[in-house]
Structure formats: C-alpha cells, structure tokens
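Researcher: Please translate sequence to structure tokens.
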Amino acid sequence: MVATPIRQKYDIKDISLAPKGKQRIEWAAREMPVLKQIQERFAQEKPFAGIRLVACCHVTTETASLAIALKLGGADAVLIASNPLSTQDDVAACLVADYDIPVYAIKGEDNETYHRHVQTALDHKPNIIIDDGSDVVATLIKERQHQIADLIGTTEETTTGIVRLAAMLKDGVLTFPAMNVNDADTKHFFDNRYGTGQSTLDGIIRATNILLAGKVVVVAGYGWCGKGVAMRARGLGSNVIVTEINPVRAIEAAMDGFRVMPMAEAATQGDIFVTVTGNKHVIRAEHFEVMKDGAMVCNSGHFDIEIDLKSLGAKASEVKEVRNFTQKYTLPNGKSIVVLGEGRLINLAAAEGHPSAVMDMSFANQALACEYLVKNKGQLKPGIYNIPTELDQEIAALKLKAMGISIDTLTDEQNEYINSWTVGT
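Model: Translation complete:
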C-alpha cells in the first residue's frame, strides 16, 4: 500500500497578518446579512458533514464569509486563489489562523505557483468543487480522471466558466452535475452589473488617480459586466464607447445612449480601455499601433488573456513601473501604452473587488448550490443546472428584508387570474 503524501497545511504570504484580516472580514460581514443567516442555519444543520470541498475563488473578505459558512456547515474545506493578483494576504492569514481553513493563495503568485495550488487542491480529493473559470474542473478532467468518482458536483459563478462547462458537456467529458451560479438572477443582475461596474472604476482610480470626467472610455463587451462598467463610467462624466460582436447587445448599447463601433475604430479614440468579454486578445497588436500616446488598458473580464500583452511586450523598447499596478510600455515610435494590473482583473489587482453588499447574494447562491448538490447526490444526471427559482427568490426575499424593503403580494383574485386560462379579460 502506497502511503498518502503529507500535504502542506497552507501556503500564504504571512500568518502574522491574521489580526488585520479578521478586522476586515468582520467589517465586510456587516453588509452580508443573507449569508449570515445561511451561516447560522448551516451551523445548526451541518449539511456538509463528511464532505470534502475545494473552493477556487478570489481570496477576499467576502469569500472569507462563504468559506466560514461552509466550514460551519461541516465541510472539510480547502481554499485556493482563482487569480494570481486577487488574493488579500491578510484574509488568507486569518482563515488559516482563526478558522483553521487551509488556504493556498499569495497575492502576486506566478503561474507555476497557481497551477501547483490547483494540484494541491485536487490532492484533497474533493466531493464538491466551487470553481471560478473552471480551471480546477478542467484539470480534474484532463489529469485526474480517477478522482471523478469521488465528485458529487461543481458550482461555477463566471461567464467564462459556464462557457467552458458547456464545451465540456458538448465534448462528452462533463460526467457530473454542475450548478450554474453565474446565471442566477440574484447573481448576474447585481454582482456582474453593480459589483463589476463600481469595483472596476475603483481599481482604475486607485491605480492611476486620474480624473474620469471628460475621458473617452472604451468598454469591450456589453454583457452584464460591460453594462455596469459603461453605466458607472458615464456617471463619472466619461464619454463611453462600446465594442461588441453580438448584434443584439450592440443595439442595446446604442439604445442605452452609447457610441458603438469596432475596436479598430475605437482604438484611435479611447483614453482608457476596459475589456469585459471573457475571450482572449480583444485588444491586440494592431490596436496598440493606433492608440493615443498614454492610452491606458485594463481588464475586468477573465484572467490576463483579454489584452495581448505578449505582442505589446515584443513591440516595446522599454517597460517601466510608474505606479503600483501601473506599467508604461514605450514603443519605438516614442508613444507609450499604460497597462494596469498586469492585464489581470483590475478591480481585484488594484482595489478590493466587489463591495460586500453585492457579494452577499452571489455567495448565498454558492452556499445554497453546494447544499443542493449534496441533497440531490446521485439524483442529478451529468449536465449544467440553473439555480432553482425558489432558491433565487428566497435569496432575493432575504436581501429585501435585510434592506428594510417590503413588496406587494398577489391577492387570491389576482393569483387566480394570472394562473388561469379560463378567466377572461
């Protein structure tokens, strides 16, 4: 019998940062009343007793509340970073020191370390995977087929991850259920739009301290994240241009009052570029060539692939860090392009991610999706499942209650009318 290797209990920057992390986690929790109620129920019911769980997430104060909820629910949980620049090191330290949750995440970790942490997480032999971009699930399928038998299912909360899961299902390699947290109404309507909108501009401002009023901001992609960024940029006085590949979304952007054009044209006009597409090389060599001197580019979509930094680096005669999370690439013609956050998620690289009030609903969805998988173990066929409507409605009702907002309910007469075909108009 081969002995199981002893796993390092954590890999973080500095455990002495824990007291600061605890303060910040508690501050964020003040605005997360829905998840707080779920934490309290989980602590009583222990729905994850005996369940090994891996969470690949941005290690932030908000994620900490989710991790704590899962631990209180009985989960044997491990947390890794989903992005090399998104980890808040004090939060990672607190989760290890105060909550005994193994964390493998360091802000600024290189790709080799990131992939090692993915492998470490899979060494945990998870029954449930909470994923962000489907990297852990993809690695499991490609490299650890023998562990799929242990898996009850996975949850995914990003558009990119859902696209990848759909491709896995089409190719016949998704042999277990996956919960589509991203498309829950209480996730994408709020997290993607209001969370990404505010936190992206927060990251840009923290990295640069520039005035957005009067600037031309180019938003690549008009999904829910792009809508949020465009809306908030306009609110700060920017002249917003939207680029799109989807004709319906392009019409929507135009009717929302934004200029719409191809990136090749927008590249000549923009002062600040924000990619929120989930695809690769949305801004590339031919765009850099025609940009204004000093144009700024950043990403709030997926990983560091949306901006083709390899081609920019190959063109540059000099790369210089001019501020934290701000690098100036000088081109042979004397012009410069400024890259924010190394092309990674600017809202997490230079700021603190989404406000906790909006993540309250997103992580409530994650927690309840995990519980749903456990409750329905063995009953769900391989595939991608939306969050049940009743859970979505429950989260919304809890959030309204916490906000002190009441709404109407149908009368018996109205209920009969709206659900019957026999009652005439």
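Researcher: Any highlights?
Model: The first strand starts at residue 52 and ends at 57.
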